[in-house]
Amino acid sequence: MRRHDYAPRPAHIKWLLDSDPAIRWQVMRDLTDETPKAIAAERSRVATEGWGARLLARQSPAGNWGGSPRGWRDDLRGEDRDLLITLYSLTVLMDLGLHPASKQARKMIERVEKRLVFTRLNNRPYLHGETEPCINGRILGIGSYFKKPNDALAKQLLDEQLADGGWNCEAPKSRRSSFHTTICVLEGLLEYERAGRKSAAVTKARKRGENYLLERRMFRSLRTGEVIKKSWLRFSFPTFWHYDVLRGLDYLRNAGIKPDSRVGDAIEIVIERRHQNGRWPLNLLHPEYIPLKMETHVGGASRWNTLRALRVLRWYDNATR
Q1: What φ, ψ does residue 63 adopt, rounded to 5°?
Q2: How far apart are the first and last CA of the chain?
Q3: Please, what are the averages of pLDDT over each run of 10 residues along the chain (321 residues)?
Q4: Could you give the CA distance from residue 64 to residue 301 in angstroms, rounded to a whole number?
Q5: Is the alpha carbon torsion for 68, 73, 74, 77 positive or negative?
Q6: Distance between CA 171 and CA 188 in Å, rounded?
Q7: Exposure string (b/e) for 278-315, b if CB count within 10 Å is 16 or more?
Q8: DSSP H helix total and E strand total for the chain
Q9: Among candidate residues 57, 76, 160, the one with its CA nearest the CA of residue 118
Q10: pTM over 0.85
């Protein structure tokens, strides 16, 4: 891959910057290498403008984000629906880059910590997690990012790691890991380490999880080499609990992993998804719900996917040229 073929052109950068503060500050950090002061100033606007401010405003005084659309997840109790929407909303606020030290973030997470519980688990505090590792990986990351790392939850996740290196919400019935669960746990463990809880045990578990993805070339069967799910080759944002190739690669970039030949096929998928105008489309929308509309035009150009694809390609190129 030649970098000049895939590096963003001035028109691409201008288009990305002509958007929400959540996009702009990450473009400044990951693509244009602005000064830390300029990046911090733009990032601070996530709490008061655009998508971040709108999503924060939808939190109820009780701490949750509720009010799901009619017919959405009718298989769940109302309380469980609200807690699921809360999980998704908190994850998106992390993805937007809401600064945890902002007064808006502190107010938001205090509500969560003091008022939200899992009543079906004897009123366990929300940030202590529940039973499924896919959810607990997200909660570990949310707590580590916005409040404080939960050592007991991290230990629970390490104890649930499977022999092949990943995780699965269906374990122990299933002894084969799930890409979906594994990426959720990996992202949570990374935030946990960054919150000051780096240890040999956590790092080892995270490296085993990363190797689970890499040994399968980020989307292929270890046994046959075939594509496991074609939907993983299509990119969306928010990702919610869903794995896809771009999410997996962006995790590796964020974790500072040096790319090797095992990501080559996945990088080619990213390149192939680019439209002729140099932008990446929104390939699909997942059915999960948050009370915020961002990009909704499937097939149209996506700033989120373009930003993430460009920074993944930059990461790959910088490490391999």
Answers
A1: 105, -15
A2: 9
A3: 66 96 98 97 98 98 91 90 96 98 98 96 97 97 97 98 97 92 98 96 98 98 97 98 98 97 96 93 96 96 98 91 69
A4: 32
A5: negative
A6: 19
A7: bbbbbbeeeebbbbbebbeeeeebbbbbbbbbbbbbbb
A8: 14, 2
A9: 76
A10: yes
Rounded to whole angstroms, the Cα distance separating 259 from 48 reads 36
From the list 240, 237, 236, 142, the residue with the least C-alpha distance to 191 is 142
d(CA 131, CA 134): 9
Nearest one of 222, 223, 273 to 244, comparing CA atoms:
273
The rounded distance, in Å, linking the Cα atoms of 293 and 296 is 7
**63-75: b or e for each residue (b if 16 or more CB lie within 10 Å)?**
bbbbebeeeebee
Question: Do 24 and 39 form a contact (C-beta atoms < 8 A)?
Answer: no
DSSP structure class, residue 225: -
124 three-state secondary structure: strand
CA distance 225 to 157: 28
Q: Which of 208, 210, 197 is nearest to 155 (CA)?
A: 197
Distance CA 194, CA 149 (A): 9
Number of residues that make up the chain: 321
Residues 283 and 234: their CA atoms lie apart, in Å, by 5
